[in-house]
Design a protein that fits this description.
- InterPro entries: DTB_synth_BioD, P-loop_NTPase.
- Strands 3-2-4-1-5-6-7 form a 7-stranded parallel sheet, with helices on both faces.
- The chain is globular, with a radius of gyration of 17 Å.
- It has one domain: P-loop containing nucleotide triphosphate hydrolases (Rossmann fold).
- It is α/β, with parallel strands linked by helices.
- The protein is 37% helix and 22% strand.
């Protein structure tokens, strides 16, 4: 049986995909590798793979690096650079899956952001991989106003391609949720029909790596912290 490939997408940029990916890598355990098909942006921000390596202490692979903080195809066109099509990324991911117990693929931005200059998206990549692997797709989402629309759109797009999302991951839950956040914690699974499988506390990515790894498993469904009504980083 081929090893499972987990594809992590988001409803938008900045929803907490990278920290969620690191938490998933901790939960998956030894033999896990995290893949970033396309990394954009330079400057003072650490690339996503470096953040994952630091927090989760797992190996990573970055296929394409583009300097400008834009969607991958936009960044490539701006610089006159060709980037591989998504089917080439899929082939490399299959090779990694043959050598690792678990492969976690982190997308760039939302589900339909173009990862190549031919219009290929993370949704296309996930569809390609489902042909010969067990693939689970997780959707990282916000809990504030606007999240219901964004999350439903993402879930519906996956379903239109024959992919049933494995779960929702709440990217940053405040310690004291306001009214909108409290309602959305209930409404997100209700309106999408997709269970919440993890809830990361706001500020989780700022934890010291050892503390992050010690706490990460408690953020997943079935843990006392997720079902106890209070989610907080630190402690």
């Amino acid at each position: 049986m081929p090893n499972v490939i987990t594809v992590v997408t988001g409803t938008d940029t900045g929803v907490g995909k990278t920290v969620a990916t690191a938490a998933l890598a901790v939960r998956a355990g030894p033999g896990t590798i995290v893949v970033k098909p396309a990394q954009t942006g330079g400057g003072t921000d650490e690339p996503d793979c470096a953040v994952v390596q630091c927090l989760a202490a797992c190996p990573t692979a970055e296929f394409v690096r583009l300097d400008d903080p834009l969607a991958p195809d936009t960044a490539a066109r701006l610089r006159g650079v060709d980037i591989p099509p998504v089917h080439a990324h899929a082939a490399r991911i299959r090779e990694l899956a043959a050598r690792h117990a678990s492969v976690i693929v982190e997308g760039s931005g939302g589900l339909l952001v173009h990862l190549d200059t031919c219009g290929g998206t993370l949704a296309d990549l996930a569809t390609d991989l489902t042909g010969d692997h067990d693939v689970e797709v997780l959707v990282v989402t916000r809990v504030g106003l606007g999240t219901l629309n964004h999350t439903e759109l993402t879930v519906n797009e996956l379903r239109s391609r024959g992919i049933e999302p494995a779960g929702l991951v709440l990217g940053a839950v405040p310690e004291r949720p306001g009214l909108a956040e409290q309602c959305n914690l209930t409404d997100l699974p209700r309106v999408t029909g997709v269970p919440v499988v993890a809830a990361l506390p706001e500020g989780a990515g700022a934890l010291a790596p050892a503390r992050f790894r010690a706490q990460a498993r408690s953020w997943f469904a079935g843990s006392p912290d997720l079902h106890g009504g209070r989610i907080a980083a630190g402690g």
